[in-house]
Predict the structure.
Amino acid sequence: MKRNCDFLRIFAVLFVTIAVLLIAPVTTYAEESMQVRVGLRRSLANRETIILTNTNILVGYGDNGAFRQTGQLHAAGGFTVRNLSNGIVLTSAGQTLHTFPTGQPAWITATDGNFITMAGYSFRGVVEFSPAAGRLNIVNVLDMEEYLLGVLPSEMSPSFHAEALKAQAVAARTYTFNQMLRGTHSATNFDICDTTCCQVYRGAGTENANASAAVWATTGLMLFYNDMPILASYFSSSGGATENSEDVWWEALPYLRSVNEIVEHNPMVWERTFTWAQLTTAAANQNAGIGQVTGVSISRLAPSGRVMNLTFHGASGDWTALREVTIRNFFSPIGGTLPSRNFSIVGAEHTTPQVSTTNGHNDFEAPLNTMQAVNSRGAVSTVHMGYIYDGTTTRRIDSTATRASGGNGITIRGSGWGHGVGMSQMGAEGMARAGFTFDEILHHYYTGVELRTHGQ
């Protein structure tokens, strides 16, 4: 089934066609809310065959999002799904039980409201199998709310406060709808995948009562900006402040602004040590061409305090890792990706920050500690610390590390976990425990958004 980027599947009525003698029964599988196509990539990608452990299944095809049943099958030993030249084939105990028409995706669902089970996972709704270069492309087609039942326990601990779980449910629902409209995965004929690339989804087998209650309590609610569902990104822990979207992904989104945490529950702190030999290996892996690494500098910070530029000094020159992906992934071959860019180099020297100001007529640029300020009583004092107001929050102007060198290597000490854009899950938990409601949590992390259902 081919889909467009801006379509919305909404189904209001469940039709049932009465079977007539000598005519195969035809029924529809439809949902009242929007339908989601989830690409099962985390554990079910590139399979030549897959075994369904169900003993009773319904088979059919998709018709504009509705399941059209063409038959019902029983096999005491389950079914094997294969991609053959003449179409998707179902076999059991070496016998072919059903062959779908060539080129037609196979739609399979369980009987009596059960789940389709395969490879240790169970799934609500329909599972679609289509041919893909000799292998199977597997997509779970189901209602948005039922999809979220399998997302929430995988993305946030079900032991979290109910208001934090509700905030997570709204963010995950909004993120899904945003991806559907963007057509991010349209080339592979699904809306969203089941990995950390999108949102982790493990099907019905991980559902939890607390998480499910949060989904149902917020049914249909999403976040909008200028009448469009936002890119409701989220992450584990900020360690103090979230990040502007452009400081991670280049695009400046007005609702993804850096905000200070109100109260983050158990903020994550971490420390990593690297030898010069390890850093040399990592630099070579990046084709930096600087030879033996002898020093490291934090050469630029974002307003949130996260590292924007990390420079490595070598025997043959310098090389700078820029922004989120390059900085965090630089360390992958020598111990794993950094938890976040919110870190400092232990023992590094510091410089006084260079700042600019204006008197209304002229602009001035100088080291911060050379400037003077006049307070409300007319007293003049030297400026040792500066603050900047960006229209939303006030932040301190910190000095930046110059160069760490000597010894056996460097130690990086950091806080937070994740990219830092959008909602901090540990921050949401902290706010919920402090008495904030889910909508207050969402409006704190997503600037200027509207909370409502689609179409209101």
